[in-house]
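Subject: complex prediction, re-run

Hi both,

The earlier run crashed halfway through, so I resubmitted it with identical inputs.
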Amino acid sequence: MDIIISNSSDTPIYEQIKEQIKNKIVSNEIKAGELLPSIRSLAKDLRISVITTKNAYEALENEGYVETIPAKGTYVSNKNIKLIREEQLQKIEGLIDTAVAIAKISNISKKEIQDMLDIIYEEE
Amino acid sequence: MQNILEVKNLSKKYKGFELKNVSFNLQKGMIMGLIGENGAGKTTTIKAILNIINSDDGNIKIFNLEMKENEKQIKEDIGVVLDDSFLSDYLNAIDINKVMKNIYQRWDENLYFKYIEEFKLPKDKIIKEYSSGMKMKLKITVALSHNPKLLILDEPTSGLDPIARNEILDILQEFIQDEEKAVLVSSHITSDLEHIADYITFISNGKIIFTKTRDELIDNYGIVKCSKEEFKKIKPKDFIKYKKNKYEYEILIENKNEFKKKYKIDVIDKATIEDIMIIYIKGEK
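This time it finished cleanly. Structure:
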């Protein structure tokens, strides 16, 4: 698992960690039920303070991405994966709405948008 | 979380210097950096905690025990690295093991030689021939080899090159992998502590200025740089201290984001611990 921290960034380190782990959970790089590194070992490996790492894990927990089981560790949450997917789908729907609205104003056909989608999706 | 060390109203008066009501707590599993200018009272605080110097007033609790009444017992569980070398220059690592075995009840010679190997310290060379980095690593090895729960180090990185300093910081982080343990480390090289310390305690002129988490300081504090006209518009309650330089005003603020909402000033930098220290000491209010 890569976590890349910038010391010169304006984004606090705990937030950088939180965002990167969150992205890995959303993209399924880290899967539901998977154990995250312990706070202390992550702090050591990233050369940052324990409290910074703890803050990152607590923020992830508050947002429902992970669960901490005392004396066992922090796991990627099971129940919220569906919720996360739901949120992502809603986000996509909103963006497609906007795209379709623009298309209709400009007389761009459904077929054209679909082709565009195919190309962009494949590029990724 | 449980305190491993409690310092309460520690005071000591010397001619021309006074340690005044120094208080702070260190929790288990944490690294606390003690920062301050030369002569601020870092070493005096550490020596008073360890009962090496007699304090005039105050109370020290370590592992929930009164230091003054349980000194012998407590010291079995503390590893200490002080500036003044307690090791003879003409001993080698093997000799030191023999000496320490007689001093500490719980001296663990296997652990000692494990660290000696790990830190790549030559066993047969006398200490006189060690580099400063090697000497410091040996001192820390000695401090670690009776399995202490609390590690207290006075300026362990001073005079060392960046590589050696880094190695020392690694040792400290490794030490607190066991969350029952804690580290108190003084340093005037604040960048060393900026990354790994959980708490920063700032002492100046014998008084504690603050104890804060590293994140509170680095993520929230800021340095505003502006002109005299702009400075005049800032309310005193919105900054900590300011420093007037030849071409600009430097202002230490406690919360960058709130400040940005209130004032339209272009340059607001992140504050390093060094910046914070300098403006606290040199600045005015």
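Chain B has a mean pLDDT of 93.

- K.
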